[in-house]
Specification:
Elements: H1 7-20, H2 27-42, E1 46-53, H3 63-66, E2 69-76, H4 87-93, E3 103-108, E4 111-118, E5 122-129, H5 135-180, H6 190-207, E6 210-218, H7 221-228, H8 230-246, E7 253-258, E8 261-270, H9 273-292, E9 295-297, E10 300-302, E11 306-313, H10 320-336, E12 342-344, H11 347-368, E13 372-381, E14 386-397, E15 401-403, H12 405-415, H13 417-438, E16 447-451, H14 454-457, H15 462-473, E17 480-484, H16 486-491, H17 493-504, E18 509-515, H18 522-527, E19 532-535, H19 537-540, H20 547-562, E20 566-570, H21 575-584, E21 588-590, H22 600-610
Parallel strand pairs: 11-12, 14-16, 16-17, 17-18, 18-19, 19-20, 20-21
Antiparallel strand pairs: 1-2, 1-5, 3-4, 4-5, 6-8, 6-11, 7-8, 9-10, 13-14, 13-21, 14-15
Helix pairs in contact: 1-2, 1-5, 7-8, 10-11, 11-12, 11-13, 12-13, 13-15
């Protein structure tokens, strides 16, 4: 240990130590350099530094105000053992440091520890052997420690600012990543894919080569999701995303649009159309082989395939949105062709796609422009008494006349407009019932049947919405009958059954529409509280000439009657069909032989006439107008 006998030597010491401060901006190198200089200048055996800390975030605070503690940081020389200055012991000692002097001396054998408190920063411990530092030296070190404290605080603030800047940059990077990537699979999302596709189209035009885009929709994914749960479904989506990515070149892009829809971008595949088509076919074969391999997910061995729409670009002045739309159209053609197949987009599809967009746009307008109406086709029992009707939506376009349901209902289902259409139909049907009931025209046990899409029925708030419409219109719910499809029954049996029972408590009855064309199991019929089976008209059309159809109809009638259900045949067009159905025991009928779909005023006249007259049978040779096709 060195001794300082005059003020000049102390001033020189202060100068040397002061100059060692601030050479480094970062805290740890600054303290280490200061302690090395102190060891040489003071002849110390070792020096140690402890940081103030509070909480778990590692930030530094003033012990006096926040009740923090010190944590060991570093020693000089680095090989020295830091006894007796373990963090726990130091934390007890520093509470005894005199605020004025800012130093406390602790002896342990022949080692003297000089503990200097740097408020809000930490503690420096100078060790000397055999003798403590002179009192006047400790006093002279006071200003140095204050300067060191100020430099340390500035360094801490700088480091904290860097931490906050880095954290902000990391957060911004995360937000940006989430904005352009799918949260489940971490693949590019629709926005990023369209950017890449637009760039690929422009590059293809400039470079005079061709690229390709694939639109993939997984086959039967909903069945897996519904039967095994969303966790297994999500795991399958992630596994498929990984397989698709590993099947392609580094410059290719796989993205997830949502649900079970994926898209693949293949830029710069060939200089000519034939070469591009050939290469794309090779990629499709590779993808099919990859997806066909079994998946072992949570103990479930699953298999997957995809329907694909293909577009080779560039074509004319098509944009990225156009190409995506064309690929989507081709994918739906692949679905219609039997799934697990790929279809190349053609010009004829382009015409169909443009027509589809036009119909969708005009249908949205029709919902608010009073272009939609309900027509009613009567239903009769075996005694030829009117027992109800089926409400059928009709669209009269001001320029193109009647648009057939087959031309707009599928588009409404694809775009989600079917939900608004269904709610409109339900509301209008309830209001019409209220009007006829107010005039005393409805016969006992009359039922107005309404076709509802499965998309509306599976909505969580479906039952609540129905109750609100009933309350708003004041309709007697016992006049309502809702027609369900067979596909809906297997999508979520328990939930469907609960909703049926809840609405039946209001008086609403339920029928199974187009029975025999879907996937119904007899166990569903036995367990579901249905009131009526409706035989699909495809079986009625050839019932008099096709023994197979006749046998199917006979079986459906027997099943329905044994389960206590009413059985109604739709599509009855001739007397021969009616007579045969009557002999088989069918209880109710609907079809052109009894009456065409008609506007509300015409149906009202029929209700009035039905009170007095026997129903006049329609002539089978009558020409069917466009407005009356169901």
């Amino acid at each position: 240990m060195k001794y300082f006998f005059n003020s000049l030597s102390l001033k020189s010491l202060q100068y040397d130590l002061g100059m060692s401060i601030g050479i480094e901006l970062r805290l740890r190198p600054m303290i280490e350099h200061f302690m090395k200089t102190s060891l040489e200048s003071l002849g110390l055996s070792a020096a140690h530094f402890y940081l103030w800390k509070t909480g778990d975030d590692g930030r530094f605070y003033d012990l006096a105000y926040l009740g923090g503690h010190v944590s060991y940081c570093l020693s000089v020389p680095r090989t020295v053992k830091r006894f007796p200055h373990h963090s726990a012991k130091i934390n007890l000692i520093i509470r005894q440091v005199a605020p004025k002097s800012g130093v406390m001396i602790v002896q342990d054998g022949n080692t003297f520890s000089h503990i200097f408190l740097l408020d809000g920063v930490g503690v420096i411990v100078f060790e000397s052997k055999n003798h403590p530092l002179e009192k006047k030296l400790c006093v002279a070190l006071g200003p140095i420690m204050k300067r060191l404290r100020i430099s340390c605080l500035a360094s801490l603030q700088h480091e904290q600012s860097l931490l906050e800047i880095n954290a902000r940059k990391e957060a911004e990077s995360t937000i940006k990543h989430l904005a352009y990537h799918d949260t489940l699979t971490d693949l590019p999302n629709r926005r990023l894919f369209l950017d890449k596709l637009e760039h690929a189209i422009e590059s293809a035009r400039n470079g005079k080569y061709f690229g390709a885009m694939l639109f993939l929709d997984l086959d039967n994914f909903k069945t897996i999701n519904d039967s095994l749960g969303h966790l297994v479904g999500d795991a399958l989506l992630k596994a498929i995303a990984k397989r698709l990515t590993t099947s392609l070149r580094e410059e290719d892009t796989v993205a997830r649009l949502g649900g079970d829809e994926f898209v693949v971008l293949l830029p710069q595949v060939a200089k000519d159309m034939d070469g591009a088509s050939a290469y794309t076919n090779l990629v499709i074969e590779k993808i099919n082989r990859t997806l066909a391999l079994p998946y072992n997910l949570s103990g479930n061995i699953l298999h997957s395939s995809a329907s694909m729409g293909i577009v080779i670009f560039p074509e004319d002045d098509s944009t990225s949105l156009d190409v995506l739309k064309y690929a989507d159209t081709a994918m739906y053609q692949a679905k219609a062709a039997g799934r697990d197949t790929a279809v190349l987009f053609s010009n004829s599809m382009k015409v169909a796609a443009n027509k589809r967009l036009l119909v969708e746009k005009e249908l949205r307008h029709a919902l608010n422009a009073d272009e939609l109406s309900l027509h009613f086709q009567p239903q009769y029992n075996i005694d030829r008494n009117i027992i109800g009707a089926e409400a059928l939506i009709r669209w009269y376009h001001p320029e193109r006349g009647f648009i057939m349901p087959v031309d707009f209902i599928p588009i409404a289902e694809e775009t989600g407009l079917i939900l608004a259409l269904d709610e409109w139909v339900l509301f209008q049907a309830c209001e019409q019932i209220v009007e006829w009931d107010g005039k005393g025209l409805l016969p006992p046990k009359f039922r107005l049947a309404i076709n509802l899409s499965s998309r509306l029925f599976i909505m969580n708030n479906f039952v609540q919405n129905v109750k609100q419409i009933i309350d708003a219109t004041g309709v007697d719910a016992s006049f309502l009958e809702m027609e369900l499809t067979e596909r809906l029954l297997i999508s979520d049996f328990e939930e469907t059954s609960d909703k049926i029972k809840e609405l039946q408590e209001l008086g609403i009855q339920f029928s199974l529409d187009d029975f025999g064309t879907g996937y119904s199991a007899l166990s569903y019929l036995k367990r579901l509280p249905l009131d009526r089976l409706k035989i699909d008209q495809s079986f009625i059309h050839d019932i008099t000439v096709d023994p197979g159809d006749a046998a199917i109809v006979d079986t459906i009638i027997v099943i329905g009657l044994h389960l206590g259900m009413d059985v109604i045949a739709e599509g009855v067009e001739t007397k021969e069909q009616y007579d045969l159905l009557q002999n088989k025991g069918c209880t109710s009928y609907q079809g052109y032989y009894f009456g065409y779909p008609m506007i509300s005023k015409s149906f009202e006249k029929l209700l009035v006439k039905a009170k007095a007259d026997i129903l006049p049978v329609m002539q089978p040779h009558r020409i069917l107008g466009a407005a009356y096709v169901h």
